[in-house]
Design goal:
Length: 459
C-alpha cells in the first residue's frame, strides 16, 4: 500500500512495525460543541484509511482520544479554555458539556457509518500518564518551570523541533508575532502543565508535582497514544491544520520523553473543507454547519459521505449545496441500481476487486474507487449476482450501505406541516392543503398522497 507521508512529503510503501497489527492513532474531537462538517470530513478520511487497511488484509488497532480538558481556543497557548467557554455558553458544568458533546459526536460517527475505534480514551481519565510524560521531559532537560508556575516545553533544547512541519527559522520567528509571553523562553515553547494560568477558576484541576492545575492540550495525545500503542508505532492522523502546532508539539513531547525517534513512522493529514457562498449563508455568526443541519435540510448523512469520497483526501474540497445535491442524486441512482441486482448470492469479480484494491492502495484514491464502482454496475459482462457480491466487498471500504434501502429522516418542521395538511384535507380545505404542500416543497420534500394517507419524501 502506498501512503503519502507528511514526514517525507512523498508516497511511500507502507510497512507496519509489527506486520500482525497496524497501530493507528487519530486525533479526536474537543467536546465543547458540535462537530462542524469540516471536522467530520477528517473523520471520514480516517475511517476510509482504517477500512482500506482492513480491506488489504491488515488487522488494525485504532485509538482515538476525546479532548475534554486543556484545549484553548487557539492551538497555541492563547485564548479561552474551550470547555469553559462551552459551559459558560450553556450554563452547565464543564463535565456536563463534555458528556453531552461526546454523545453528540458519537451519534455523528454512527450516522456517517464510521467504524468505532477500538479504544476511545478521554483526556481526563489519563492525567497520570500526562504527568509522567512531563516528568520524563523534565528529567531529560526538555521542560522548565516558568515564573508563573506553568511548565513549558523548551523548543530550543529539542534539535529537530518543527521538522515535520518544515518550520524553518523564518517561520519560527513568525511565531513571535502572535503574542509575547514573558514566561516563555521562546515564543514557540508551549505549555505542558498550567498552574497559574489566566483560567484560575478552572473547574477541572488535578494535583501534580508542579502544583494544582491542568495539562496542556498537546500532551494528552502523546501520552495516551504511547500508553495504548507503545513508544513507537505506525500511523498518526489529523487535519492539516494540526501540522504546524499540535502534531509538531506531540512529536517533540513523545521523542523528548522516550529518546526514541521516529515516534510515528507515517503521518497522514486530511485537507480542508471550504464553504462556498451558499453554504456560508446557511450559517451565521458562531453557528457553523453541522451534520444535523444537513439532515434538517433533508439530506441523508451518507450523501455527505458520498460527497466527501468524490475528492482525494489531500485536496481541498469545496462544499456547496449544489455539490451536495449532485452527490445525493448520484448516491440514490447507485443505490437504485444496486437494489435492482436482486438478492442472489454470487462470487466476487476478481478483475474488479483487483482494480478497486489498486485504487485504495494508491494513497486512498477514492474518486477512482467510486469510478470503478460505477463501471462495474454498468458492465453488461458481469452477472447481477456477481456484481452484488463485488459491490458488497467494495462497500466494506466505501461504507455507503449500498445494499440497504435509502434511508432518510424527516425534520420535525416538515412532519408538523404534513399533520396540518392531513387535517386540511379531512376538512376538505383544498386551498389550505395546497398552500401547505407548497411550504413542504420549499423545505425540499415532496408530498405523496396514497390511499392510506399522505407521506413525504426528500425531492
Ligand atoms: Zn492530537
Amino acid at each position: 500500500m502506498q501512503l503519502y507521508n507528511t514526514l517525507t512529503r512523498q508516497k511511500e510503501e507502507f510497512k507496519p512495525v509489527d506486520p500482525s497489527e497496524v497501530k493507528l492513532y487519530t486525533c479526536g474531537p474537543t467536546v465543547y460543541n458540535y462537530a462542524h462538517i469540516g471536522n467530520l470530513r477528517t473523520y471520514v478520511f480516517e475511517d476510509i484509511l482504517r477500512r482500506a487497511l482492513e480491506f488489504e488484509g491488515y488487522l488494525v488497532n485504532h485509538v482515538m482520544n476525546i479532548t475534554d480538558v486543556g484545549h484553548l481556543t487557539s492551538d497555541a497557548d492563547e485564548g479561552e479554555d474551550k470547555m469553559a467557554k462551552g459551559a459558560k455558553r450553556e450554563g452547565k458544568t464543564v463535565w456536563e458539556i463534555a458528556e453531552y458533546y461526546t454523545d453528540a459526536f458519537m451519534r455523528d460517527m454512527e450516522r456517517l457509518n464510521l467504524v468505532e475505534p477500538h479504544i476511545k480514551c478521554k483526556a481526563t481519565d489519563h492525567i497520570q500518564e500526562m504527568i509522567d510524560q512531563v516528568k520524563a521531559l523534565e528529567e531529560n532537560g526538555y521542560a522548565y518551570v516558568a515564573e508563573n508556575g506553568n511548565v513549558y516545553f523548551d523548543t530550543a533544547a529539542f534539535k529537530d523541533y518543527g521538522a515535520m512541519a518544515q518550520l524553518d527559522k523564518q517561520n519560527l520567528e513568525a511565531g513571535a508575532r502572535i503574542e509575547v509571553d514573558d514566561n516563555k523562553r521562546s515564543p514557540n515553547d508551549f505549555a505542558l502543565w498550567f498552574v497559574t494560568s489566566k483560567h484560575g477558576d478552572q473547574d477541572m484541576q488535578w494535583d501534580s508535582p508542579w502544583g494544582r492545575g491542568f495539562p496542556g492540550w498537546h500532551i494528552e495525545c502523546s501520552a495516551m497514544s504511547t500508553r495504548y500503542l507503545g513508544e513507537q508505532f505506525d500511523i498518526h492522523c489529523g487535519g492539516i491544520d494540526h501540522i504546524p502546532v499540535h502534531h509538531t508539539n506531540e512529536i517533540a513531547q513523545a521523542e523528548g520523553a522516550t529518546g526514541k525517534s521516529p515516534w510515528v513512522n507515517t503521518w497522514l493529514h486530511g485537507n480542508f473543507l471550504v464553504l462556498e457562498d451558499d453554504a456560508k449563508m446557511a450559517k451565521s455568526g458562531e453557528n457553523f454547519l453541522t451534520l444535523q443541519a444537513l439532515i434538517d435540510k433533508g439530506y441523508d448523512p451518507l450523501e455527505y459521505r458520498y460527497f466527501i469520497l468524490n475528492a482525494h483526501y489531500r485536496k481541498e474540497l469545496r462544499f456547496s449545496f449544489d455539490n451536495l445535491d449532485a452527490a445525493k442524486t448520484a448516491l440514490r441512482k447507485l443505490k437504485t441500481k444496486v437494489a435492482k441486482l436482486g438478492d442472489k448470492e454470487g462470487t466476487e469479480n476478481a478483475k474488479y476487486i483487483e482494480e478497486f484494491s489498486a485504487a485504495v492502495s494508491d494513497d486512498l484514491n477514492m474518486p477512482q474507487a467510486l469510478a470503478i464502482t460505477w463501471n462495474l454496475i454498468d458492465d453488461d459482462k458481469v452477472s447481477d449476482e456477481d456484481k452484488l457480491a463485488t459491490i458488497k466487498k467494495f462497500d466494506t471500504v466505501l461504507g455507503l450501505k449500498l445494499d440497504e434501502e435509502i434511508h432518510f429522516e424527516i425534520p420535525a418542521e416538515v412532519q408538523e406541516l404534513l399533520i396540518e395538511r392531513n387535517k386540511a384535507r379531512e376538512d376538505k380545505d383544498w386551498a389550505k392543503s395546497d398552500e401547505l404542500r407548497d411550504k413542504i416543497d420549499e423545505l425540499g420534500f415532496e408530498v405523496h398522497d396514497l390511499s392510506g394517507g399522505s407521506e413525504v419524501r426528500p425531492k
